[in-house]
Amino acid sequence: MDAIETIYKRRSIRRYLEKQVEKDAIITLLKAAAAAPTAANCQPWEFIVIDEAQKLSELRDKLVFARYNAPAAIVVCGNMKLSFKGPSQEFWVQDCSAAIENILIAATSIGLGSVWIGIYPIQSNINLVKDMLNIPEHVVPLGIVYVGYPAEEKEARTRFDEKRVYWQEYEPKRKHRSKDK
């Protein structure tokens, strides 16, 4: 599968087969994550892999929005001691998001399903994950990627909308529907 096809095929998978993900596959995903671009090569990411049923069950019980039956989870964290200092420190979010996207695409390319569960910037979720996984103060969990063999298949797609593309400059008079959330 080529890169563009893999990107279109990548979809959020929320149902998984009861089959363990091999350690080699997880390592492949982690290597893909570490191949992501990073501001000034800071590489502020750290990863916590969870594949024990009891720990996954605890995670699902405590995070209402993360109750999927995946056999593995990768918690992607930003280490503030490795990130930029000062006003550029928030680049860790972009760096770790790029790492997550690489995990999602790599998972699709090797026949796994995945879904990104956001943790940051909701402080109650950050605290819950930090407490549960013994994460130190200077490390912030950005998100969790559930990974497993998919029990559902979704059609490849893109959500390209040319109304959201501007050439040379933004056109503020262009009408868009807005989402009130």
Describe the structure.
The chain has 5 helices and 4 strands, in the order ααβαβαβαβ. The protein is α+β, with helices and mostly antiparallel strands. The protein has a 4-stranded antiparallel beta sheet, sandwiched between helices. Helix 1 crosses helix 4 (91-109) and helix 2 crosses helix 4. It starts with a helix and ends in a 33-residue tail after the last strand. The model has no long low-confidence stretch (mean pLDDT 95).
Write the layout of secondary structure elements.
Blueprint: H1 3-9, H2 23-33, E1 45-50, H3 53-62, E2 72-79, H4 91-109, E3 113-118, H5 123-133, E4 139-148
Antiparallel strand pairs: 1-2, 2-4, 3-4
Helix pairs in contact: 1-4, 2-4
